[in-house]
Amino acid sequence: MRMLHTADWHLGRIFHGVHLTADQAFVLDQLVRLASESKPDVVLVSGDVYDRAVPPPDAVALLDDTLSRLVLGLRIPVILIAGNHDSPERLSFGSKVLAGQRLHLAGTPAPDAMPVVIDDRHGPVSFCSLPYAEPALVRERLDRKDVVDHDSAMAAQIESARRRLPAGSRAVLAAHAFVAGGIESESERSLSVGGTGAVGVEHFAGFHYAALGHLHRPQRAGADQVQYAGSLLCYSFAEAGQTKSVNLVDLDAAGRCAVERIPLAPRHEVRCIRGVFRELLAGPQAAESREDYIMAVLTDKEPILDAHGRLSEIYPNLLHIERSHLAAASQAGGAARDHRRLSDLELFRAFFSQVTGDELTPEQAEAYAEIVENLRRAEREAD
């Protein structure tokens, strides 16, 4: 069984004011070409297909085009699940009809969900879909009062899925979760406002391959058969230099899998440049492109007139400028850390302290987390 595993497309993403739809179409063209050349038996898309619950029309059109080319053009089955950025109801609309065309969509957990079974020359392979869901929703849908957090929610969903696996079948799982010990990136949204939202890798034991989404860095998650494909593109400057990829997975008759990471070439690299202003005006080195998405870190201490405008003449895709001495002075003065690296709760805690002069109590933090979780759930599950 050959599988093409991808995740975290985030269609409709805006990066420092730039709409990335054209960039996403550029790498999805590569994914379709790879599927045409490598001839996988199935494509697995492990969540965060869209960047927000109500995606823009051009993102919807791009998804429609990509899935049509895979399912109708290449006749490859696709299994696609919702992530924490997706609206499960919108993403899974028409799922019963589309399953007849070999497009299998899973938006919310269902106690009676059956695995998708695909045969190869060695026999059947069962694919279980575990879309992202908040613990409260899992507790309700599966009628499990013991579900109190993301870890117990994952355990309950996998337990339910295992009961429907055919005896002796090789088993593959698609899930969207943060596995404890995984390496996070700046561009991911935390799954839990008040905690880590982490799940234990031990839950995936017994599956011959676990195709995960959520973490944007391609990586194994505690076991060779538990893998994150990573995001399509670099979605923050903290990811500059990362090679984005998809996983080409071969599963043999005994359930052993070989994983090959196939790199994706972006339309524009994401790059950070650093130095004094006059040096940066000299332009890129021979192997570098002026068209890259650029963050410039200026080490000058004196004021610079129209730094952004002048540098943009050299780098037309200059998206952000930082002054290193100002950042250092701010940190020395005890100011908050880089806000981009803070969680929602940490940002609110700092805001609360600045406004009231008091520290947030554990009870207030819990109330804030509950409100935000409810808002996120309402956004994702809106009709």
Model description:
With 383 residues, this protein is an alpha/beta fold. The protein folds into three domains: 2-263, 4-Layer Sandwich (Purple Acid Phosphatase, chain A, domain 2); 270-335; 340-380. Helix content is 31%, strand content 23%. The protein is built from eleven helices and 19 strands. It has helices spanning 21-38, 57-73, 88-91, 95-99, 135-141, 150-162, 277-280, 307-314, 324-332, 344-356, 362-380, and strands spanning 2-6, 14-15, 18-19, 42-46, 78-81, 103-106, 116-120, 123-130, 170-176, 178-179, 198-199, 209-213, 219-220, 226-228, 245-251, 257-263, 270-275, 293-298, 318-323. It has a six-stranded mixed beta sheet. It has a six-stranded mixed beta sheet with strand order 7-8-9-12-14-13, covered by helices on one side. A three-stranded parallel beta sheet has the order 17-18-19. Helix 1 (21-38) packs parallel to helix 2. The longest helix is centred in the C-terminal third of the chain and has 19 residues, at 362-380. The protein is globular. The two termini are 37 Å apart. The model has no long low-confidence stretch (mean pLDDT 90).
